[in-house]
Amino acid sequence: MAEGSWYADDIDRMIVTEEDIRTRTDELAKQVAADFADSESVLLVGVLKGAIMFMADFARALGRYGPPVEVEFMAVSSYGQGTTSSGVVRILKDLDRDIAGRSVIVVEDIVDSGLTLSWLLKYLASRSAKSVDVVTLLRKPDAVRVQVPVRYVGFDIPSEFVVGYGLDYAERYRELPGVGVLKPSVYGRS
Ligand code: 5GP
Ligand code: MG
Ligand code: MG
Fold first, then answer.
1. In a domain, 48, yes or no
2. Which atom of ligand 1 lies nearest, measured to the CA of 160?
3. What pTM, to 2 d.p., does this model score?
4. Which atom of ligand 1 is nearest to the CA of 87?
């Protein structure tokens, strides 16, 4: 096995490359910087664990163009059967600080049904943020049907299960530099 390519056996095809992510993240950061040029600062709220890579890269990109950035993380789990989220959410890790009056941008890895996000947006609004917007690296077609206001989208992707760049299957593949479709044969193993 060649160095760094152990995962080639498990990935059907890459759909978003490292280079695609770098380019698009830079574009999104410029857009957000322009939209928030009048803000004193922007508070980025990352949703653990999937958003870690995108948060790190997006925060740095925004730092090149925009107002000062602060970083917070939340961890939530949605009660649900198997792989479908129910929209009933439990907070595993809350914000460390008050967000009243702040310009908040939720940083997400992927929006699928949007149920978790929709709950999170209501929660953040109830904590009296000045504004709450969303930037997501990936969006699946179902998210377009549910009316979750996602202001900034990196890539619209097909309804397939993807891994990499923070996204996992059974806690694996988060470290892949891009996003790829997992081979169905991998689900069969355990
Ligand atoms: P939603 O509430 O929008 O249905 O679910 C969003 C969450 O489900 C994401 O933050 C992510 O953790 C997980 N998810 C949805 N689609 C995928 C996918 O294709 N791959 C992975 N690894 N996780 C996904
Ligand atoms: Mg997420
Ligand atoms: Mg996961």
1. yes
2. 19
3. 0.93
4. 2
